Amino acid sequence: MLSALPTAKVYVTLKKGVLDPQGLTVQNALEALGYDVQEVRMGKYLELTLADRPREELEADVAEMCEKLLSNPVIEDFRFNIEP
Amino acid sequence: MLSALPTAKVYVTLKKGVLDPQGLTVQNALEALGYDVQEVRMGKYLELTLADRPREELEADVAEMCEKLLSNPVIEDFRFNIEP
Amino acid sequence: MVEPAITPDTIADHGLTEEEYDRIVELLGRPPNHLELGIFSVMWSEHCSYKSSKSHLGKFPTEGPHIVQGPGENAGIVDIGDGLALVFKIESHNHPSFIEPFQGAATGVGGILRDIFTMGARPLASLNSLRFGPLQIPKNRYLMEGVVAGIAAYGNCIGVPTVGGEIHFSEVYNGNPLVNVFNVGLTRHDRIFRGRADGAGNAVMYVGSKTGRDGIHGATMASEDFDETSEERRPTVQVGDPFTEKLLLEACLEVMEENLIVGIQDMGAAGLTCSTSEMASRGNTGITVDLARVPRREEGMSPYEIMLSESQERMLLVAKPGQEERVREVFARWNLDCVAVGEVTDDGLLRVTDDGRPLAAIPAVALTEHAPVYERPLAPPDDLAERQSLDLDRVYIPEDCSAVLLELLASPSIANKEWVWRQYDHMVRINTVVLPGSDAAVIRLPGTAKGVAMSLDGNGRWCWLDPREGGKRAVAEAARNVVCAGARPLAITNCLNFGNPERPSTMWAFAEVVEGMAEACEALGTPVTGGNVSFYNETLGTAVYPTPVVGVVGLLEDVSKHLTQWFKDEGDAVVLLGPASEELGGSEYLAVVHGLVRGRPSIDLGLERSVHELILKAAGEGLLKSAHDVSDGGLAVALAEAGFQPSGHPLGCSISLRVETRPDAALFGEGPSRVVVSCIPDNVQRLQGLAEEGRVPFTLLGTVGGEDLTVSGPDGKPLISVAASEAKRSWEESLPGLFERPQERDFDR
Amino acid sequence: MRFGVVVFPGSNNDHDCYRVVEDVLEEPVEYIWHQDSDVEGFDALILPGGFSYGDYLRTGAIARFSPVVESVKRFADGGGLVLGICNGFQILLEIGLLPGAMLRNQSLKFVCQYVNLRVENNETPFTNQCVNGEVLRVPIAHNEGAYFADQTTLEALRANQQVVFSYCDDAGRVVEEANPNGALENIAGIVNDRGNVLGMMPHPERCSEEMLGSLDGLKIFRSMLAAAKAPATP
Ligand SMILES: Nc1ncnc2c1ncn2[C@@H]1O[C@H](COP(=O)(O)OP(=O)(O)O)[C@@H](O)[C@H]1O
Ligand SMILES: [Mg+2]
Questions:
Q1: What is the number of alpha carbons within 13 Å of residue D92 lying toward its C-beta?
Q2: Has domain D3-229 been given CATH number 3.40.50.880?
Q3: Which positions in chain A touch C212 (Cβ < 8 Å)?
Q4: ipTM given for this complex
Q5: Bridge partner residues of D83 (DSSP)
Q6: pLDDT tens readout for residues C349-386
Q7: Ramachandran angles phi, psi of C114, nearest 5°
Q8: Domain ranges of chain A
Q9: CA distance C591 to D93
Q10: Which residue's C-alpha comes closest to atom 20 of ligand 1?
């Protein structure tokens, strides 16, 4: 079953200082709706269902995937965790 | 300081059964790079910096923001947690 | 904050030479402080000062009866009658696009749009000119995907159609892609605004996005004067925000329409520094700006960072006396920051203060007019003779020219670019009369019968072989494309993409290209209204080809008379107007089929002009059904392309060709000044008469029609025979096929 | 017939719709600013294409909270004609005047091109000048045009003939190859159950003049005129 396979949850966020037009616009919208929101930053969230392999190998692979494809190192940071 | 303020981390994901072309494309690309990935689902990740208010109020507010604006119930699910 | 000391290292880190530093001291009458040094360094950078190119650019003809604004402003302006004027300009974003292709290209589009609407014009249409290394290399595909997506994202969102452009591929662009973006806008003569700060006491207002630490001069980042972590102080890639720019565009046009401002300039390269010093300098005034009032996105920004930030979607304007409040109201309606940050003065100084505390005071002209100008040494490259020699005896003649045609049609530089322009909204604002795909795009001008045709062209290979002739041919080809739409070329803008100007061979090529272009502009009656120079397109000692990109705008008095490049009906006559050239040197054919970049292109500008006049005359009389200039891939490719109408079954044609030297030269040679036209058979005689009057060689080539494209030689022997549909497939499937390969970001490992 | 064109921050086809109504239809037309809530006196409202609020977060998501939206809803509830084109369609989905949602194009790329549309229901105020099965050539230009609805909604749409346009090939066949964006069952445009609100991804305003290459879009605007003249019988 798929559900038994390990899953990587990957978070890709804009680096600090990089303009986030989407976040700004969402913040303005939330404020216009009456919510008190100081800042909004928008990022990506990915769930990868992986093959069942030793933990360290998966960790190394996912880190590589993030560097190579899932994030843009010029403007984005990433972090991830693998479950279970 | 901003850093002391509570932050909501919001995850917006496509409902099961809704086609995720971005996830598919990422999966294909990862497979082409030689990784063994069963499935990729792509979603949004938002960090909201909130005002310092009682926890329950924040919880209620963020749930409302998610329902009203941050997600579209026809195609998306959301979850969030508030830190610290 | 401790004021960092100025040491020889700081000076060098700012990209300034010792002589330049001495000159700064002389101009100020004292040593600059750190902020002042930063201000000088960006204003005296190659990018802002044109210090290496200025002495050459003066050779361009810049005047003509319809020129309203030549070089020196944010964009050039030409008169098109009825009180209307076109505002247009080209800009490079090569380096940012290499670092981050999507955002680099996107912010390039944002920048050129601001250049246009800052002059009071509503942007009508954009074009782009791109150069990449071969697409077989994954990194190049990654770059091109990102650049095209970035151009699309910005242009589509702001709602300005991207209606055309050009793309070429060559190894020389591997480490240095070129991304040049062009825009043309429409305004009325009584609604033209300039980047001038007039009227001492007038308020200087900051509008648009907040200021962040975006793109601050890389060199200065190396200096060690910072108190926070270095991670936080790294220059940040600029991110485009087309939504904010859309609001800015509408708000700016509104304050202009209401006549509330004296002058306005966008904050592009060198941000607040450049806009304040240039506006003061043009107005013979001074400006005082108080940094405490500048809207900021981040905490703890230093004056240095605020002055040098290149955050996008910002403008600086000078309000008319008493109108500040109304200006604020307009921007508020569009939800934009609008703050009086200073005022115009009459002492000629750019003064920077922080809550009144003086931080810098520099004569504005010291930053602009008194910037250094260099006569860099020039020398032709050592291997020039070798490049130019082409021994045709050693170039075999292919047996199967049909196969060569198919190969050329699939060559990415020639292949269908629909993969690109499908991603661009090219129809928004419902003015695009000729969609991408023809020689020039045509936009109708709302409220008039007129239309404007435009094209970007440049062939780096020719310029590498012979920069002077290549420069001429770039102007000629861009103008010819516009003529092929039935429009009269009015003026040009240009972007000169070169390597390191400190290298004498680069500078020699630069000088030659400029002189060649200048000569062509004279000959074709198209003055230069502005442009852009991009040097240092060089990686590890390998420079790009000298690549001038020429943008031409032309006018159609009656837009309904426009032409496209496509054959229309079976039975129409196919005619070649222009010389029966068989020049092979520098052709795509030589490069693709024989792996040779050799030869010496040339052009007769007088004949070029005659061809233009002939086509305009014939088009005016309604004689022509189509006109397509012969360029990359030569006559055979031009004939094939003329059959590929945007919808429906491709049209073949049967052609018989005189061959003077060799068939491949007649079919695939890229000699200039040639146009394939079609017309009903009854008009052939009249057309021939006009050609004779105009002293333009006239060759009846054959007839439109049939399933096949057939070309036969002098003895009736078939040279080419392919199904038009097969030719079209080859041409159509090439680019999409290359991009179907899996994507990966390839980090120069 | 008085048309109103609703302008949100970031709308960019507002002017195109305005021009078609004014210059081609020669009917009175006015812009309605998103902060206004007065839509009195209009016979039809157009929600134009573009990128309201930059399409940031989700297309149409933020526009939904503009003051004008409540008025548009009331106008529709009162039976007024509402035409949402492209981003306008996306907004109609977000505000719930039409069912379903819009997903990213399957190609993940913005796509601007002419497509063929088959008219599936000519008994709407927007298609009464068309013939059922007729093929219209109309351009699309969008990034998020893959229409999605759950199975129940889809069945209801079909049952009530609310699918008005489908992407089809030259011959009018609704086939996968003719689907430019991955829309469910090639759906290009739908009406509400009452038939007075149409959302469509393709741009009729871009093909309502000879000079622009197709007149097919004009049929939609002409249908609206005809509907306004005839007594409403939805
Ligand atoms: N980068 C681009 N963006 C948009 N359209 C492009 C681009 N590159 C090429 N095109 C379009 O493709 C067509 C063919 O281009 P090209 O072969 O360079 O024409 P030409 O040789 O006549 O200058 C033109 O209509 C051009 O506008
Ligand atoms: Mg051409």
A1: 31
A2: yes
A3: 17, 19
A4: 0.93
A5: D46, D198
A6: 999 999 999 999 999 999 999 999 999 999 999 999 99
A7: -65, -35
A8: 7-83
A9: 53
A10: C439
